[in-house]
Amino acid sequence: MSLDAVTRSRIKGYLEGFIRGLLAEHQAQRYRERQRRARQTHVSPKGELKPFHEAILPAELLRASAFERSFSTRLGSTFEECARLIALQRFPLVRRGYRTMGEMAFAADAKIEEIINRLQRGGSQVEPDFLAWIDEVLRAESEAVVRRRVVADLYLQDEQGREYFFELKSPRPNKGQCLEVTQRLLRAHALRKAPRPQVQAFYAMAYNPYGETKADYAHAIARRYLDVEHQVLLGREFWDFLGGPGTYEALLDVYAEVGRESGSRLVEALLLFDA
User: Closest Cα partner for 270 from 30, 15, 16?
Assistant: First the structure.
């Protein structure tokens, strides 16, 4: 299916608004910094003075670098909304920030903690096996129950009633993020008391910083603490899951189109304002 005309238009409009808002925020921040610098002495209680950086690099480059770092961080926030808009083409129920609250067996909750602790302590000695972990959790039964909540970045339900929980996070997570996401994904299965394919929970990464395929993916921490083959949807795999074959390329094309139309205007505004 890829992207239909309506979805493409919605994504493009959303990204154009994102660029306008980011530029307005940056301009306001630059104005506040200029006002502060006008009053500033050569003392920084926060340790922000960089005399050697400022001596060797043009001010425009320093400002552009700061903007790029801010932009990269903020750009990640667009992926969830794009994912929601794309999923609406194929799934009857689509939600962002979806909260699931319910009861699970105390033994299942304890088993999840055991798995996380085992993984945390074992490191490279433990081979991540997400499908086996799901089975362990669902086989842990007890009369005692506990209430738990899971918040999914993106939640889908298809026409057959199958549920999909996605944690859409950094493609270069740290150890703590890997463990936390794994805990939440296992809790989704425990709350629903269902294995795949009725419930499918994934760590989704919007892009692969190492190449095109999972075989290229080389982030050592993720490979040590995540079952990349069964637990992770990576880049093209994630977007094509949502919208069908070709979605990844079509989405990149929309981002590129917005970049072509607004990039030069953004750079011009940035330089003029900071001049």
Answer: 30
Phi, psi of 212 (to 5 degrees): -95, -30
From residue 258, give the alpha-carbon distance in Å to each of 14, 19, 177, 255, 275. 10, 9, 31, 5, 25
What is the DSSP code (8-state) at residue 47?
A: S
Considering just the CA atoms, what is the radius of gyration of the chain in Å? 22
Under 8 Å between Cβ of 251 and 85: no
Domains and CATH numbers, the chain: 1-75+259-275 (no CATH), 91-243 (3.40.1560)
Helices in 96-219 by DSSP H: which ranges? 106-122, 130-139, 175-192
Q: How many degrees, rounded to 5, is the angle at CA 50 between CA 49 and CA 54?
A: 125
Torsion of CA 115, 183, 85, 171, to 10 degrees: -70
Which amino acid would we find at residue 200?
Q
* pLDDT tens digits, one per residue of 111-151: 999 999 999 997 667 899 999 999 999 999 999 999 999 99
Nearest to 131 by CA among 214, 200, 221, 218: 200
The encoded tokens of residue 18 equal 């994102």
Three-class secondary structure of residue 202 per DSSP: strand
- How confident is the model over 167-219, as pLDDT tens digits? 999 999 999 999 999 999 999 999 999 999 999 999 999 999 999 889 999 99
